[in-house]
Amino acid sequence: MGGKCPIESTLSLINGKWKLLILKELSQGAVRYGKLGAAIPAVSAKVLTQQLRELEEDGLIVRTVYAEVPPRVEYSLSDMGTSIFSVFKELRRWGLEDDGLVRGECSFCGQCIPVHGREKGD
């Protein structure tokens, strides 16, 4: 039994205080660093940069640098990053279930599912 638990592997990819929020912001398309920082104002620049690097190293996001003056950098979901939204859809479904203790509500913001990965009925 030398293999790593698949749940543990998945959680290690998205483990980090801000990674889920970063992925959610990127679900709507490519975003520049400044816009990400503005969308998640509680995260420091240092931590945002660190979390973006980790997500890129793990293959969940793509960093694209445009040869312009000043340089423009955009972040977007990779195919692997897009595929993780099936997990998020389940988290949303589970969070909306009435467990008697916590009643979840959904704003229907649509960010549970990336724009380019939406299915009929979502």
TrEMBL record:
Q: Which UniProt keywords apply?
A: DNA-binding, Transcription, Transcription regulation
List residues of the HTH hxlR-type domain: 5-103
Q: Which domain of life does the protein's organism represent?
A: Bacteria
Gene Ontology molecular function, alphabetical: DNA binding
Which InterPro entries does UniProt cross-reference here? HTH_HxlR (IPR002577), WH-like_DNA-bd_sf (IPR036388), WH_DNA-bd_sf (IPR036390)
Q: What SUPFAM superfamilies would the database entry show?
A: Winged helix' DNA-binding domain
Q: Which protein are we looking at?
A: HxlR family transcriptional regulator
Name the source organism.
Aminivibrio pyruvatiphilus
At the highest ranks, the source species' classification is:
Bacteria, Thermotogati, Synergistota, Synergistia, Synergistales
